[in-house]
Predict the structure of glycine--tRNA ligase.
Amino acid sequence: MASLEEQKKAVEFNRESLESTLKRRFFYAPAFELYGGVSGLFDYGPAGCAFQANVVDQWRKHFILEEDMLEVDCTMLTPYEVLKTSGHVDKFSDWMSKDPKTGEIFRADHLVEEVLESRLKGDKQARGLGSEIDGVEEDADKKKRKKKVKQITAVKLDDELVKEYETVLAKIDGYSGEELGELIEKYQIKNPGNGNDLEPPRAFNLMFETAIGPSGQYKGYLRPETAQGQFLNFNKLLDFNNNKIPFASASIGKSFRNEISPRAGLLRVREFLMAEIEHFVDPEDKSHSKFDEVKDIKLKFLPKNVQEAGSTKLQELSVGDAVSSGMVDNQTLGYFIARIYLFLMKIGVDPNRLRFRQHMSNEMAHYACDCWDAELQTSYGWIECVGCADRSAYDLTVHSKKTGEKLVVRQKLDTPKEVVQWELSLTKKLFGPKFRKDAPLVEKYLTNLSQEELESKAKEMGDNGKIVFQIDGMQGDIELDEKFIKIENVKRIHHVREFTPSVIEPSFGIGRIIYAVFEHSFWARPEDSARTVMSFKPTVAPSKVLLVPLSNNKEFEPIIAKISKTLKKEQIPFKVDDSGVSIGKRYARNDELGTPFGITIDFDSVKDDSVTLRERDSTKQVRGSIEQILRAIKEITYEGSTWEKSTSELPEFVSQSE
Ligand SMILES: Nc1ncnc2c1ncn2[C@@H]1O[C@H](COP(=O)(O)OP(=O)(O)OP(=O)(O)O)[C@@H](O)[C@H]1O
């Protein structure tokens, strides 16, 4: 007989079948369906809610509890000023191209990707090489779109062009709007629906704008990430942590992005649950005290130089080697990459369909010093599910500069240190008459200048006898000469080291992870492809146990009540199915929900309190006393045991009901 793993792979993965199961068992469904639905908005049903709650619970235990993180819950409504300062107002956008004749809008990078992929497919067909790209089935949405106009045409491409397309696809995440425009022009990419020309890509900001309060004057946004709230509470958290770093904050909550074209179910939506960590660390020492615990874990990496050379070949090496070779920038980043891997394994991600892809130089935010995405392979391709970036000191620095509030760590030095530094002195009595009500604003601007800025201003003063600058919220140039301000290079003895910490940020999209786990867990029994199974790990399965009486005979009621009471007391989620359908059907329904265990109550149970326990994937059954069976369930679900270990003493039970 084929092994369980072989059986799971015997029937080819079918996305339509998965989607129909998810819908039928109400894991999630389009929101506002009665009103026709809104793209990118989904409601979770009971099974989806329980699954999500279990994933979040695992996340909280794996990160917050195990790493002593400081959890915060910050507001989703965020004032304009905060997101202006963080750079989101100016830069948090994707590129869109419009068909001016029909008004249709395309996300430019996705369009280029789809068109080039379909041309490469056509080329493969023309060469008689089949049409699979990387062995992954093509996106059904894409298929539909293409079908509307024209099928993939088998056209052989020039060898050079194939290489060019492959290189562009390997680098697709890194192009600017202008570069995407050039690609659209160069490769004659049109509206796939009608062949119309498209306008050059324009930036579209992804944030949902709103007004806070009745006046409409106070502009705000729904947050696009949870990070900013964590940065703004830095001083309170540092104080809570007795002024010691490194430490990490963490937050779980909804974020909102007005995606240009939401698609692929839960993978690209407009409102989603995020779980984010901000780990604050000394920029001069990014080692991690627990690095040794993870250094031997082997992972599949896709480094930037490989992608920049137009390839997607993975490199398998240990986290220790990845850091010591300099491929991953520092130990803390490496530590989190490994911890992300361990978390994903805990909740049921297939290790063969996980890779860590490094951001290419042109893809990374200018302030970041290294960034890796945990990507999960699904029928939609490789999808970024967790981002893990070293954001350096950017966020704390910009918020500090804007608000005038220091967001720094102060450490007492064992040996005082002589430091040469730039200092400025202001003749404050002249500021009032010159700037009136704006005087405090100008003073704040000047006292917040960094060492580099002071150095350049000192040079400007030396060269021109004055400095010229502008301030947000004040009109025109401001000029100051030496009567107002002096900038000098002075020697000081420092007893305290003051620095802005770097931030390492693992950022999880819970919905994307959940969907990938759905795909990785889904299979159909080889003997009947309509009998589908969700092989969820017991820890994350929505319900752990199905209680099935042989029939709805009244004699079973006391024993059901007894087991139910114990399960409730033990806080083990369960369902009773005493419907009239056959036991086999009742099991099958719960296999679709991923319920790992079934307890069957029969006439022997009434006599001697014994029941049978069924394991979902193998459909194996054993018999034991209620106590023994519940112990086994508890051990496997919550204490890391296995079916083999926890049921080895119990006799096998051969059932006719499957
Ligand atoms: N529209 C979305 N729908 C669902 N999850 C999302 C969405 N956008 C981002 N996420 C999740 O949030 C995580 C962190 O967000 P991040 O800003 O790094 O994503 P991103 O780089 O903008 O993603 P993408 O390039 O796919 O749009 C992602 O790894 C992903 O899991």
